[in-house]
């Protein structure tokens, strides 16, 4: 398949999947009608289907050797109404940063808290979902500003896995490396010798750095069929046991059906799952 055609197919597939298996489906179709499900999502569904159709047209016109103005076509899709706010006019919520926030902590006797990194120094540190220190003392953080999920018509989600490092020994991060980007709601991750396991919607993926630059350059889907119809309940809170197996927590309401070479694994209303990388079970 020609590279451009493959790129167009993948782009169309991305939009199609955001309709066929839209994240937060419980709000779109199900029993969770608050806060604004019935107001927002019908228009978003119309829009995503129109954008999918535009990409299908672009694909076929490209194969015929014709031109097609995708930007113009997308501009004619459904206009999304503004989302009503819960804040009252003139109301402000004070947000306390860094060192000022540290003064507000009440600690048990014998405990001490210090600031290692903040969003003032690292703007990418937005909406963190999980963090973990590696054996080099570096702090890995999954951030997901796209939460609760991608809004149709916006730029593609660009959630990340960050590595924050103290390079001068003052116990404060001064270097950021983006291990992986272009993610969508990475609610959980775990560092392992073979790579980094990351929750990605319906998939458990393994991201690998093959050239030692601390940036993932290989991605593999290990398991599919995890539920994401309520995205803050997706597989998360990753941790490893001494054997190297990965434990993942899944919240209530979800209905997971994971296909494996040993048969399907089903989970209903949450629980914990254990993935054995050696046997892919």
What's the short version?
The protein is α+β, with helices and mostly antiparallel strands and 281 residues long. Helix content is 21%, strand content 26%. The chain contains 5 helices and 13 strands.
Give keywords.
281 residues; 5 helices; 4-stranded antiparallel β-sheet; globular; alpha+beta; 26% strand
Write out the strand line-up for the largest beta sheet, numbering strands in chain order: 1-2-3-4
Strand content: 25-35%
Radius of gyration: 21 Å
Order of helices and strands: HHHHHEEEEEEEEEEEEE
Name the average pLDDT: 92
Description:
- The structure is a single chain.
- This protein is α+β, with helices and mostly antiparallel strands.
- Helices cover 21% and strands 26% of the residues.
- It contains five helices and 13 strands.
- A four-stranded antiparallel β-sheet has the order 1-2-3-4, with no helix packed on it.
- A hairpin with a 5-residue loop joins strand 1 (128-133) and strand 2.
- It is globular.
- The two termini are 33 Å apart.
- The mean pLDDT is 92.
